[in-house]
Specification:
The complex is a heterodimer of chains A (about 350) and B (about 290). Chain A has about 350 residues and is mainly alpha-helical. Chain A has 16 helices and 4 strands. Chain A has a two-stranded antiparallel ribbon with strand order 1-4. The two termini of chain A are about 20 Å apart. Chain B is mainly alpha-helical and about 290 residues long. Chain B has one domain. The longest helix of chain B has 27 residues. Chain B has a two-stranded antiparallel ribbon. Classes of the chains: A mainly alpha (about 350), B mainly alpha (about 290).
């Protein structure tokens, strides 16, 4: 067998193939098998964390499409997630609709709102866009709290469980597969989207919008499209969130959540699909890491006992964003890529 | 009329906060999302100096201002200098990261309780031509006015002020003229944080002191945008206008929709401004034909 060189492709088709080599296909298969059999060997807490990661990964994928691929900063992603979550909650508990209507409906609802927000935001760039989306987030939060007739305001709202053929998915174990399937679908959809003309147009807009326009990319419609698709993903993530939690509250969808999503894509790697997943899992695991670290500290320094609270997590998010931006702008995905190449090229350094 | 006057008083605060934003944007083209945290932290520091360590008002203010200036210089040196030349997205994100980091750090050190600031001003309100204002509000207005005049003189006549304006205008030219832009940046961050500290102390006099003070600065964004990102007079006028609009909307619409209108109005206004006049009233327009 010939020695495979690093990035040598013979045709364009090869470059845009979904899974590029036999090895990648094999690893992905192995990984999927591990995920599918997780309930057999994992403990319940692990499954709970996996559920959270799935929800976060779908939302992060959406945000990465808008911010990482198209280059538009959004500080209002949590608002779209909130729209999806409340959409599902209201449709399922008030109107008793089944999940296969609720989930797409929530996505479409968020997408319609995203479309509406996207059009005025087209004129804005960078800082201005960040502020506009942040303002939008605050307004949505206000609407959710005030429109008590529909959302029950600060009392929160219960969500009916997913039912498949009369079989209710009412525990973390049972809903795990439901979330996993949706996540895999979302990843596949995103991977496919990026390798089409549309995906390339998004990347062109990010790299240089004027050049993109000259090359025949209609900036206006593509930006709106990016906004809409991103909100669609957020809406789906919201639906998944409310099914997982069974109860939602306006407090869950503040500016902090938007910042968390941004932290995910920055830590994971901007403009990469693998990065969104890495980032989502990592940010979900950060509180656990800190908890065990603080236990270790308590063990070493008894005076630290009981000092741990939620604030440490948030401080860690802030610190992580700063550290990654300064020292590793390519994110976890960049680190992963470097490890991979160094294995591939062993014993040469590059 | 009463609503209008108290609107002006709130507006002065917004103007003071907006001033801090605009200073940084003007010199370095960075919107500092962590501004609100500095406001909150300096209010808390001032409170603790007075309540725990029994300083009187003036020394406490001076110490707080000095601490804020040091924090500003440190922030520039540690967080923002590595980001020189990075895309705008990275710079925005790093200040956001800084902001949530500082906020939770403040939560850890100072706790989440509400404190009532031992205000040095007399409590009884003053009536003037049918308008009632508290002594504190008048002091806020006066201090804003004094600060604005001071800044005006500083930028217009002092050597450092001239250097700052030069840097804001064109960094490379300023470098060629022998201005140390690094020093200018550090100075700008220091000064901006000092205005934040003063805004924080004034706010502490009007409101309950707690972690939530940061939200006030987010409400000052609309003021910055309305005035145009880079204009100091714009920031002042924008602040006053947002204060008045917010109070009028709160006064008239609250009965119709139910509470909370006052808090969202600035954001609705922000959204509208961005839609119709994205560069604000006095901002410089960036013309790009695409």
């Amino acid at each position: 067998m010939a020695v495979r060189s690093k990035t040598f492709r013979e045709s364009y088709y090869e470059d845009i193939k979904l899974f590029q080599t036999v090895w990648i296909r094999a690893w992905i298969l192995l990984f999927l098998v591990a995920l599918v059999t997780l309930p057999l060997w994992g403990n319940p807490y692990m499954i709970y964390l996996m559920n959270l990661s799935c929800v976060a990964a779908v939302a992060a994928l959406g945000l990465n499409l808008l911010t990482g691929f198209t280059g538009q900063i959004s500080l209002g992603h949590a608002a779209f997630v909130a729209i999806g979550a409340y959409g599902t909650a209201i449709l399922s508990s008030r109107f008793g609709l089944p999940f296969w209507i609720c989930v797409p409906a929530s996505g479409v609802m968020a997408a319609i709102v995203g479309f509406g927000v996207g059009i005025p935001c087209l004129r804005l760039k960078g800082l201005y866009l960040a502020m506009a989306t942040m303002a939008f987030g605050v307004v949505v939060d206000f609407v959710v709290i005030t429109w008590t007739k529909m959302t029950r305001g600060v009392r929160g709202i219960n969500v009916a469980r997913v039912e498949i053929f009369g079989y209710s998915l009412d525990s973390d174990h049972k809903i795990y597969y439901f979330l996993l399937i949706l996540t895999v679908l979302a990843v596949l959809a995103m991977k496919n989207l990026i390798r089409t003309r549309v995906g390339r147009a998004f990347i062109a807009i990010r790299d240089r919008d004027i050049a993109a326009e000259i090359m025949g990319v209609d900036i206006t419609s593509y930006k709106v499209m990016s906004f809409t698709i991103s909100s669609f993903f957020a809406g789906i993530a919201g639906a998944m969130y409310s099914y997982t939690m069974g109860y939602i509250h306006p407090e869950h969808f503040t500016l902090l959540l938007s910042i968390q999503y941004l932290a995910m894509i920055i830590v994971g790697g901007l403009g990469t699909i693998l990065g969104s997943i890495f980032g989502a899992v990592f940010i979900v695991l950060v509180p656990e890491l800190i908890k065990s670290l603080s236990q270790l500290l308590t063990f070493l320094v008894p005076a630290m006992a009981g000092k741990y609270d939620e604030e440490w997590n948030i401080a860690a998010f802030g610190l992580l964003i700063m550290i990654f931006l300064i020292f590793e702008p390519a994110g976890l995905n960049g680190i992963w890529g470097r490890i991979k190449t160094s294995f591939k090229n062993w014993p040469y350094t590059y | 009329m009463q609503l209008f006057a108290s609107g002006i008083a709130v507006g002065c605060l917004y103007a003071l906060i907006a001033l801090g934003f605009v200073l940084i944007i003007k010199a370095t083209d960075i919107l500092n999302f962590a501004h609100g945290e500095i406001i909150m932290i300096s209010a808390l520091i001032c409170y603790f100096l007075m309540a725990k360590y029994h300083f009187s008002f003036l020394p406490a203010v001076i110490i707080t201002v000095v601490i804020a200036a040091i924090m500003g210089v440190l922030t520039e040196r540690l967080v923002l200098r590595p980001m020189l030349g990075e895309p705008i997205f990275a710079v925005v994100m790093i200040t956001i990261g800084l902001s949530i980091f500082l906020r939770s750090l403040a939560g850890i050190t100072f706790g989440h309780d509400n404190y009532v600031f031992p205000s040095p001003f007399p409590k009884e309100p003053i009536s003037l031509a049918g308008v009632t204002l508290s002594m504190t509000q008048i002091w806020v207005m006066v201090s804003t006015a004094v600060l604005v005049v001071l800044f005006f003189i500083f930028f217009k006549y002092s050597r450092m002020g001239l250097a700052m304006r030069g840097t804001a205008n064109n960094q490379e030219t300023a470098l060629l003229m022998g201005i140390s832009t690094k020093r200018v940046f550090a100075m700008v961050w220091g000064i901006a944080f000092v205005t934040a500290a003063i805004a924080g102390i004034s706010l502490a006099n009007v409101m309950v002191v707690n972690i939530g003070l940061t939200f006030v600065s987010i409400s000052a964004f609309p003021a910055v945008i309305l005035g145009g990102l880079e204009s100091i007079p714009g920031a002042i006028i924008g602040g006053l206008a947002i204060g008045v609009i917010e109070n009028l909307a709160g006064g008239y619409l609250d009965q119709m929709i139910g509470g909370g209108v006052k808090d969202v109005t600035p954001f609705v206004v922000l959204f509208l401004i961005l839609m119709f006049k994205p560069y604000g009233l006095f901002g410089k327009e960036e013309i790009e034909r695409v």
